[in-house]
Structure formats: C-alpha cells, structure tokens
C-alpha cells in the first residue's frame, strides 16, 4: 500500500459499492475530476441538466444499490437540490460529488464566479446539509480518506444521500491509501439479544391470539432491504397480504394470499374492510404520508399494529430499538418451528375486481389501467410518474418478478422521466430486458430533455404518455377550469425525432380503446428493439376512481388544516 490521489481514492470507494456509471453535468470546478472517472473505467453519463442528473442517479440507485451524481459548485449543485431532496425523503442512497474552487481561493475569500459574490464558500454546503445524512468538504489531505469513508459509511447505514465537496487542488493531491484495507461497512449492527428475545415472544403471543391477522407491505420493505425476509414471512404465516401504493410491486401478486392495495379511502371497499377489521397488522416499512394513506384515511388502531422499521420496531404504539432486518429474520425462523403456523386464511376480498368493459370510443381511466397491467411481463422494469399515473397504476395487475416504483412521498412531477435514465442504465448493466415508463403530459414537460439520454444510451424503453390536457389531479382538487391547471399543447409523437434524429425509434398516437388494444396485442410492439413512445389521449376530467376519492379527501384536509 502507498498513496493515491484524493480523487482516485474516492473513485476506488465508489467502485467498491458496485457503481459502473456516474451521472452529471460537466463544469469548470470538476472537469479534471471527470478525467479521473474515465481513467478509472467508470462510464460517464452526462445529462442535459443537473435536475435530470439527480433524478437519474436516484433511478440508478434504486436498481444498483447506490447512485452517483457529479455537479459543479454553485449553480450546478443547487440545480440538483430538488432531485437530492426526493432521494433523501425516500431513502435512496445517492452520492452527490461537488467540484469546488481550490482551497487557496477559499481561504483568500476570492470573489469567484458561481459564488454569491460574498467571498463565502459554505452557503451551498449548508443548504445540502438539510437533505443529506452526512456531508463533507475535503480540505486536508491528511483527513481526506477518513472523511470519505465516514460519509460513505453513513450512506450505507442510513440509505440516504451524502454530499462530498472536492476542491480542484485537493483532487490531485496525494493521500494514504491504507484505508482501503478496511471495507466499507455494509451490515447493520446486531440487535440487543435480550430485548430482541423479549419482543419476539410478545409478537409470537399476539400472532397466536389474533383472529384475523394481515400483513401490509409498505415502501420501507424495498428501501430498507428486507424483501427476502418479507417473502419468507408471507410464506410461513399464510396470512393475507396487502401493499400500500409505495409498496406496490414488492409482493408477488400471483400469490394466493395477495389481497390488493390498501390506501385508506382510496382502496377497494372489500380490501378496506378486511384490513380495517383486522385485529393484528404486521406492517412492514410504514410510510404514513398523505398520498400513501389516502390523505390520512387509514383506519387501523395503533394498538393492533406491529410496525417494523429500519432502526426500530413499534408494537401497539410503543417504540423499541430493534432493527427490522434482524428482527424479521429471527421472527421467520421462530415461526417455522411453531405448530400453530402457517394459518391459511381465506381472503374475503379480491385484488382488482371485475375487469371493466372496453369503451367504444375514447379511452377511459377505468379501462386503461387493467389493460396496461395485462401488457406487462415478468421481469419488466416499470417507472411510474406521480399524479394520475401514480394512482391509476394501483389498478394494474402485475406479473411476478417485476420491478416498479413511483415517487410517492416527495411527488416531484417530472421525476419519472429523469429517473428512467438511470434506472434503465443500471437495468441494462444487470442484464435486464424490457423497461417501461408511464408518465403524464404535464410531468413530461418538466424533464423532456431526458428523452435524449434514453435514446443515446440505447436502453430502448417503451414510453406511455398520458395526454389529458393538463394537470388533471390538480383540477379535481381545485380549479377545474382554472388557467393555472392548463399546459401548452405539444406534439408528443414528435419528441423522439427531436431528441434523437439519428436514432431508430417508433411513435404512436392512440385515441380509442380499439387502437390501444391493437397496439398492445401486437407482439412486435412489445419487443424492446428501439425506444418507443405512445401518446394516449384521455379526457381531461377523467381520472381513476381512487384519485377522485383521494382528491376529495385532500380538498377537505386542506380546508381543515
């Protein structure tokens, strides 16, 4: 062992985390660092702006485990803040590397471009502290390696973004590489055995006494890495299992125990009845946010919930410092030896109900989502935009082994198209075959430039654009015909030619159910031979039933707040 450039040390650690592609926008304070990225054999995926880059790093991380974004100091990093905030909110581990002016310039308080003109260099760092689990600006070669390791270990522990500022001069100074002898810490510390045994006994007693237990799988199951434990829990108990909107896709919907999506007032009535009448709910990775709970309309008593979280478990409202990764595994192992389980419970509900009839004319939301569900295949990647698509997708039956998500909590429109860039790159690196983006017209107008990256990276996604002439969800909440809920009309079928004039692509405009049916039934359309875009024209006031119910709840909540 000996010495490495500070920039090289950082990239060695990034490669240790399995990162093969880095996203971002070049800028003068990090151009030389980008040379080191290329020399390390990491692919540089430049994006049209930093916001798309942040979304792309988020999407990459959700598939790969960790994503990386590189921006320049000031305008570059602040342009990315929205995307980093979303990753922080939804526990997505993104490393945000910011190229800084030299340490010498900072110490001299030089009035440089990209600053606020005050000779201060910590303004933007202070902003990022609010949306990062750990931050550092590397100013000393003696501590640079240990600071990098501290921040990256925090990334792995908390599963949230971190911020690393790297000045132009420090990047190319030497630091000791002995730290690389110690791998980054990827495992959570074990639980307190005494407390864990006590709580396992408590949960076991509750399971034995419960008359109508259910399992609800929420977004934390994916974000905190317990899908294997959850799958085993479902098998060993035999309990009915439901997902929340954030948890959709985490459970095999072909499983006989699967009962559907529970989202408070936005649920199917029979699903709502089963969950809310349960006397014991094993809730995995709860996200009690407004959109994930039907605007706080979940009606399950806290006393009946065992809530498993990353760093703690709550039973009947009492909080215990027990990490669910370890506790769930111990619970599954203990239940395997119990003669009272599994308890096969007949479902008193169905996940989706009767398939609606195909409309004669215009495509309806009630028909669209079940139909799109039938189009999906095992092992597909599906990224769904916030808004109408987010709610409607809950009515889409899913095949087994599907990877899907939507930005349920932060809800930044335009996220899905940018995230699709990183997600498809990671998906392709891991041998994935077919990827699908479902977005709306209003959302797409925020990050349409990302389509250029989808085309040039050759990941060949299928893009469904729901054209309902503006912000339908907002219309239903407030201002049905208000001008602020309208957007300029675009020719969406022309976008692929605009952003990839030399790249093979296909675009389709469908206005009727028959047209969409014929397209989706065409085997060649479903093959990922090139990027394909389908503009689906919908009525501007039509919306999924769940959207209407939740929209009313939102309006009432806003009036009472």
UniProtKB/TrEMBL annotation:
EC top class named in words: lyase
Gene3D superfamilies: 3.40.50.970, TPP-binding domain
Keywords associated with the record: Decarboxylase, Lyase, Magnesium, Metal-binding, Pyruvate, Thiamine pyrophosphate
EC number: 4.1.1.1
UniProt GO BP: aromatic amino acid family catabolic process to alcohol via Ehrlich pathway
UniProt-annotated binding residues for Mg(2+): 441, 468, 470
InterPro entries: DHS-like_NAD/FAD-binding_dom, PDC/IPDC-like, THDP-binding, Thiamin_PyroP_enz_cen_dom, Thiamin_PyroP_enz_TPP-bd_dom, TPP_enzyme_TPP-bd, TPP_PDC_IPDC, TPP_PYR_PDC_IPDC-like
Cofactor note: Binds 1 Mg(2+) per subunit.
Alphabetical list of Pfam families matching this protein: TPP_enzyme_C (PF02775), TPP_enzyme_M (PF00205), TPP_enzyme_N (PF02776)
CDD domains, per the entry: TPP_PDC_IPDC, TPP_PYR_PDC_IPDC_like
Enzymatic reactions: a 2-oxocarboxylate + H(+) = an aldehyde + CO2
Named cofactor requirement(s): thiamine diphosphate; Mg(2+)
Top-level taxonomic group: Eukaryota
Domain Thiamine pyrophosphate enzyme TPP-binding: 399-475
A GO-annotated cellular component: cytosol
Domain (Thiamine pyrophosphate enzyme central): residue spans on this chain: 205-317
Sequence ranges assigned to domain Thiamine pyrophosphate enzyme N-terminal TPP-binding in this UniProt record: 6-110
An example molecular function term from Gene Ontology annotations: pyruvate decarboxylase activity
Family classification: Belongs to the TPP enzyme family.
Protein's recorded name: Pyruvate decarboxylase
Source organism of this protein record: Pleurostoma richardsiae
């Amino acid at each position: 062992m000996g010495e490495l450039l500070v920039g090289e040390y950082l990239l060695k650690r990034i490669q240790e985390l399995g990162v093969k592609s880095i996203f971002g926008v070049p800028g003068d304070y990090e151009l030389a660092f980008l040379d080191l990225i290329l020399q390390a054999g990491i692919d540089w995926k430049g994006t049209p702006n930093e916001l798309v880059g942040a979304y792309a790093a988020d999407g990459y991380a959700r598939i790969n485990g960790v994503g990386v974004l590189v921006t320049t100091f000031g305008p570059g990093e602040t342009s990315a803040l929205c995307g980093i905030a979303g990753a922080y909110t939804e526990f997505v581990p993104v490393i945000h590397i910011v190229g800084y002016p030299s340490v010498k310039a900072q110490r001299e308080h030089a009035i440089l471009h990209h600053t606020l003109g005050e000779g201060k260099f910590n303004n933007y760092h202070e902003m990022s502290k609010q949306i990062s689990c750990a931050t550092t600006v590397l100013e000393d070669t003696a501590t640079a390696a240990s600071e990098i390791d501290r921040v990256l270990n925090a990334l792995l522990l908390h599963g949230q973004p971190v911020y690393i500022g790297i000045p132009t001069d420090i990047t190319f100074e030497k630091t000791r590489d002995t730290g690389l002898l110690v791998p980054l810490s990827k495992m959570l510390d074990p639980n307190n055995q005494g407390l864990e045994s006590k709580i396992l006994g408590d949960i076991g007693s509750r399971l034995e006494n419960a008359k109508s237990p259910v399992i609800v799988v929420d977004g934390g199951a994916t974000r905190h890495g317990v899908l294997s434990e959850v799958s085993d829990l479902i098998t060993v108990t035999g309990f009915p299992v439901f997902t929340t909107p954030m948890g959709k896709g985490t459970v095999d919907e072909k499983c006989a125990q699967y009962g559907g999506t529970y989202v408070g007032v936005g649920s199917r009535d029979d699903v709502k009845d089963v969950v809310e009448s349960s006397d014991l709910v094993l809730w995995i990775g709860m996200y009690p946010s407004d959109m994930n709970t039907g605007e706080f309309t979940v009606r399950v008593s806290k006393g009946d919930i065992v809530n498993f979280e990353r760093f703690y478990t709550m039973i009947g409202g009492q909080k215990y410092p027990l990490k669910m990764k370890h506790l769930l595994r111990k619970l599954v192992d203990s239940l395997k030896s119990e003669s009272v389980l599994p308890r096969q419970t007949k479902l008193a509900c169905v996940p989706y109900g009767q398939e609606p009839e195909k409309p004669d004319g215009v495509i309806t939301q009630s028909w669209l989502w079940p139909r799109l569900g039938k189009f999906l295949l095992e092992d597909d990647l599906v990224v769904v935009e916030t808004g109408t698509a987010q709610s409607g997708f809950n009515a889409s039956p899913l095949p087994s082994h599907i990877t899907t998500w939507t930005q349920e909590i932060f809800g930044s429109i335009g996220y899905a198209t940018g995230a699709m860039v990183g997600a498809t790159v990671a998906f392709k690196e891991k041998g994935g075959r077919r990827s699908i983006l479902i977005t709306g017209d209003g959302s797409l107008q925020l990050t349409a430039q990302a389509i250029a990256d989808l085309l040039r990276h050759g990941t060949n996604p299928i893009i469904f654009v729901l054209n309902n002439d503006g912000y339908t969800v907002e219309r239903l909440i407030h201002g049905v015909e208000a001008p602020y809920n309208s957007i300029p009309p675009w020719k969406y079928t022309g976008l692929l030619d605009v952003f990839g004039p030399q790249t093979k692509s296909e675009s389709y405009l469908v206005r009727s159910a028959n047209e969409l049916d014929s397209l989706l039934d065409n085997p060649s359309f479903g093959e990922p031979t090139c990027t394909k875009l389908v503009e689906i024209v919908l009525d501007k006031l039509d919306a999924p039933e769940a959207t209407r119910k939740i929209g009313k709840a939102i309006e009432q909540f806003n009036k009472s707040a």
